[in-house]
Amino acid sequence: MIPQQTIKLAVIDDDSGFVTVLAKRTEAAGWQQRTLAGPIPPEELVAMRLNALLVDPSVLGEDAWGYLEQVCGMLPELGVIVCSGRSTVAQRVRGLRLGVDDWIAKPCHPEEAIARIEAVSRRRRRARPQVDAGPVMAGELEIRSDRFQAYIGGGSIDLTRREFELLQLLAEARGQVLERGAIYQRVWGYAMAHGDRSVDVFVRKLRQKLERHSPGWSYIHTHFGVGYRFDPESLDGGSDDVPVTASEPEAASVPSQPFHILDTAK
Questions:
Q1: pTM of structure
Q2: What is the topology classification, in CATH, of domain 136-234?
Q3: Coil vs helix vs strand at 152
Q4: Which one is the CATH code of 8-127: 3.30.200.20, 2.60.40.10, 3.40.50.2300, 3.40.50.720?
Q5: Which residues does the chain have with pLDDT short of 70?
């Protein structure tokens, strides 16, 4: 445990045995845990000033995915962990891409749940933008950490939360080669398992989106066997003249696509 860190946790789960044991462990750790009988409006979650939300989608009903998408979209600083006893690979992958920070399979030991919540909370805390942090300008790209948005030509790029965090991490270390393991530790919040290719998959998707919006620039470079480096380069051979200030475009909204939690993702 990390004694100096008080985590405010909300739990949406009807497994009384698991919730009771978890509550005893979190209380011993000095956390504040609140158990909810079902989904509540994201606005109420905001008022609770939570660090993390642990949720079993089966409690949410048929609109489970729609609710999770709404929460992840409206509360970008909230760590969302799914704890489910029944799921498919496709559902877990889609959930993580949607913005869920972690997915735990039941039965789950409370100590593992606590460790994963801690990891997610650490990552959320590191990703929290500083009050006086300005936009990061690189090539045609503008990164706004205060909005969890990236823009090219005044238009918002449709990035998932994890894609944005990956972009922000790489951009903040501009010119430096970051190893895959270090990227995974800082973005996902825990050590990368042997053979895990999540970093490569997310970098590829991020590159595709950047290339689609800014075809005249190359932003992320591969160092084979090591990792990745963010260093904007004009494909026309021009230099990266970085402006000091930039306008503030409106953030684009992403439409919700709710579906039943037990359905196979399409």
A1: 0.50
A2: Arc Repressor Mutant, subunit A (1.10.10)
A3: strand
A4: 3.40.50.2300
A5: 1-5, 125-133, 189-191, 237-266
Give the strand pairing for 177-179 and 155-156.
Answer: unpaired
Residue of 232, 122, 226, 215 lying closest to 167 (CA atoms): 232
With residues binned 3-state (H G I as helix, E B as strand, rest as coil), the percentages for the chain, rounded to 5, are 40, 20, 40
What are the backbone dihedrals phi and psi of residue 207, each rounded to the nearest 5 degrees, phi first?
A: -60, -45
Distance between CA atoms of residues 163 and 154, nearest Å: 19
Q: Is 114 left (phi over 0), alpha (psi -120 to 50) or beta?
A: alpha
For strands 8-12 and 32-36, give the pairing.
parallel
Helices (H) and strands (E) in the chain, counts: 8, 12
User: What DSSP state is assigned to residue 224?
Assistant: T
Instruction: Take residue 34 and report the two structure tokens written for it.
Output: 């609140």
Orientation of helix 161-172 relative to helix 198-213, angle to 10°: 90
Of residues 240, 19, 231, 243, the one with CA closest to residue 113: 19
Measured CA to CA, the distance from residue 137 to residue 37 in angstroms comes to 44
DSSP label at residue 76:
T
Rounded to whole angstroms, the Cα distance separating 217 from 235 reads 5
C-beta of residue 101 within 8 angstroms of C-beta of residue 79:
yes
Reported as a single tens digit per residue, the pLDDT across 99-154 is 899 999 888 888 889 999 988 888 776 665 544 457 888 889 999 887 788 999 88
The answer to whether the beta carbons of residues 49 and 16 sit under 8 Å apart is no
